[in-house]
Amino acid sequence: MSFQAYLDNAEKQTGITPRAFVDLAAGKNLTKHGEIITWLKTDHGLGHGHATAIARLITKGPEFVAQNHTDGVLHLDGLAART
Would you say which domain of life the source belongs to (predicted)? Predict the structure, then answer.
């Protein structure tokens, strides 16, 4: 599964866009990978793979993820923004 697919599927499961997850984590002052994964699993019901992808997005930032995981293309504003 591609990195973008993990983000898209997490949005389908929760109704929360990747960008909104980044903002929510910032609002909660979550910065550590492990604490972000616990939050995503506990509060949002995500599985480990989806939580890990979002945690990487939050901790490393969109630019790093786009460069290293998605060949430079990363969609953070949700599925509806692409239709």
Answer: Bacteria
Assess contact for 30 and 39: CB atoms under 8 A: yes
Angle at 18 (CA atoms; ends 13, 23), nearest 5 degrees: 120
pLDDT per residue over 54-83, tens digit each?
999 999 999 999 999 988 999 999 999 997
The pLDDT value given to residue 38: 98
Cα separations in angstroms, 4 against 27, 41, 44, 52, 78 = 23, 19, 18, 12, 11
Task: Report the C-alpha gap between 50 and 47 in whole angstroms.
Answer: 6
Provide the 10 A C-beta neighbour count for residue 31. Answer: 11
